[in-house]
Amino acid sequence: MKKRILSVILLSGMILSTASNLTLVSATDYEAQIAAKEATISTLSAEQSAAKEQVTAIKAQVASLQNEKAKLEEENKRLEAESERLIAEIKELSDKIIARTESLKNQARSAQQNGGATNYISAIIDADSISDAIGRIAAIREVVSANESMLKQQEEDKALLETKQEENQAAINTVWENQRTLAANEVSLKTQQAELEVAQINLAAQLTTVESEKSALLQEKAAAEAAAAAAAAAEKAAREQAAAATAAQAQSAQSVQAVVHTPAIQATPSVAVSSSQAAPVVASSPAKVTYSAANTYPAGQCTWGVKALAPWVGNYWGNAGQWLGSARSAGYSTGTTPQVGSVAVWTNSYYGHVAVVTAVHPDGTIEVMECNMDGSGTQPIANYRGAFSPNSVAGYIYP
């Protein structure tokens, strides 16, 4: 009996001891889990704070780019309106200068044919009376005074024309630079927006507690990161392409500078030119394109290319469509017959187009050197067309 009681007591002690150990282990396990959860919560809080800061920063960058885009577009509208006004004023002044120049030429021819001052003296000597002679002297004075006034007005209008042409060219150049900045900012904006989407998805993934949702968000995040990487690569490629195009323009300008001054481009018999024969040839010597007093036109535009090929062309002549009027007002001859070395002018679009004639063939076709045929500003100077009919050319400016 005593052995059975002792056994029960020992068994009871073992059970109590085991229960105590289980209670201790269970408490320890919960504390570890709670500590782990608290550590996870703390880590997530810090990550969420960092993610929120990243989202805020990228949103600010996107807003800044959008704001700059709006400002540049508004400035371009203003500058284009200003250019329209200046173009109208330039045309009016050019017409006056051309008409006045023709009138002065006619007077000079008449004076040369009729004896000039001799006729004035004869008119006074042949007067019927002193009062008639005085009247004729007064009339001659009025004619001379009118001519002097015309010459003075001619000089004033020429000076005013030059000022307006410079203002117009500055507006054109600024619009072109703004367009290039807008194009670059558009690529950057897409990159920033893609990165913003990544940051927002990353934040959402951190905040969710449902594994399935988190998994889906992580997949979206991976896709968004791939899109952001692709956008960044596209931005880099666009910048490299723009830099390469600018360098190519300068290279081609240097390599073809002498083309219109060499016998190789004189008028020669022609044969049919296929598209493969008309493929452009671009120089490869490196150079940096910058605006300068020697060429004030927007780099990469057709006007810039013609000025690079034909340095005798004036600066500040405006868009290509204005060149015929600007050239006439500057004293250059214009016409409808193509000549090697002359500038061909097209006016069948808002901006127009210009090129340098490098060959005139017996069949009436011509060849030209030009750039920016597609309006992108990235085409270097080259012979893109081969021999073609000049029916669409509005006129030519002769050196």
TrEMBL record:
Q: Name one GO molecular function term.
A: hydrolase activity, acting on glycosyl bonds
Going by the UniProt record, its keywords in alphabetical order are: Coiled coil, Glycosidase, Hydrolase, Signal
Please state every residue range assigned to the domain named Peptidase C51. Answer: 277-398
Region forming the signal peptide: 1-19
Which Pfam families does the record match to this protein?
Answer: CC_PcsB, CHAP
EC number per UniProt: 3.2.1.-
Ranges in a coiled coil: 27-96
Query: Could you tell me which InterPro entries the record lists for this protein?
Result: CHAP_dom (IPR007921), Papain-like_cys_pep_sf (IPR038765), PcsB (IPR058088), PcsB-like (IPR009148), PcsB_CC (IPR057309)
**Broad enzyme group:** hydrolase
Name the UniProt record assigns to this protein = Peptidoglycan hydrolase PcsB
The protein's gene is named: pcsB
